[in-house]
């Protein structure tokens, strides 16, 4: 029975490449046409494949409905949390998860540093949108016209001498982040706090959340924190893969 299920499920990736006839399905599975036909009829009965007028088969509408329903019920925080905890255990620093909602970037999860110096960020609190690394990643993924419109509407408080001074500089920073695929906040919000961040992507490749590692200068320097970037990006890729059901290579 498990072999039958395996064969039936193997048909779906084949049809994702485009419509295929009975012979093509049988050849791909390495089975007789009668066996392939039984599998296709079963999948057709559940709405997972559809037989066209030219007798070729394609993916059925029911499959897309199920996928959409599954995506709508995914909780990125629930999926990400174990990964954030593991990253915190590896590096010891504060780890954040953030999303873009209704013109704000909000922290939706936080794992505290093991060091006595703590950050004042809180779950549910908006981030400093013009300087925070997670905000840069989320906003950089917006279409260009939306980025420009948003940049013109924002205020640009000068938290420190490294804060983003205005819309032109902000747009340049977002373009840089968009190209390199990661972001930093090196003393832009607080002189003594540095941060590196990486994007979490959905099945369509769009950024659905961003995660970061932050630490004060008294614990590690900015250069030392930047050495954690590969680990941060691997963690973000692992979350993306679990959230989207795709491999990191497919999400690029």
UniProtKB/TrEMBL annotation:
SUPFAM superfamilies listed in its UniProt record: GAF domain-like, Winged helix' DNA-binding domain
Domain of life of the native organism: Bacteria
Domain IclR-ED: 62-245
Keywords for this protein: DNA-binding, Transcription, Transcription regulation
One Pfam family of this chain: HTH_IclR
InterPro entries per record: GAF-like_dom_sf (IPR029016), HTH_MetabolicPath_Reg (IPR050707), Tscrpt_reg_IclR_C (IPR014757), Tscrpt_reg_IclR_N (IPR005471), WH-like_DNA-bd_sf (IPR036388), WH_DNA-bd_sf (IPR036390)
Entry keyword annotation includes Transcription regulation: yes
Domain HTH iclR-type: 2-61
Signal peptide residues on this chain, from the entry's feature table: none
Family matches, as PANTHER family: HELIX-TURN-HELIX TRANSCRIPTIONAL REGULATOR, ICLR FAMILY (PTHR30136), HTH-TYPE TRANSCRIPTIONAL REPRESSOR ALLR (PTHR30136:SF24)
Protein name per the record: IclR family transcriptional regulator
Lineage, broadest ranks: Bacteria, Bacillati, Actinomycetota, Actinomycetes, Kitasatosporales
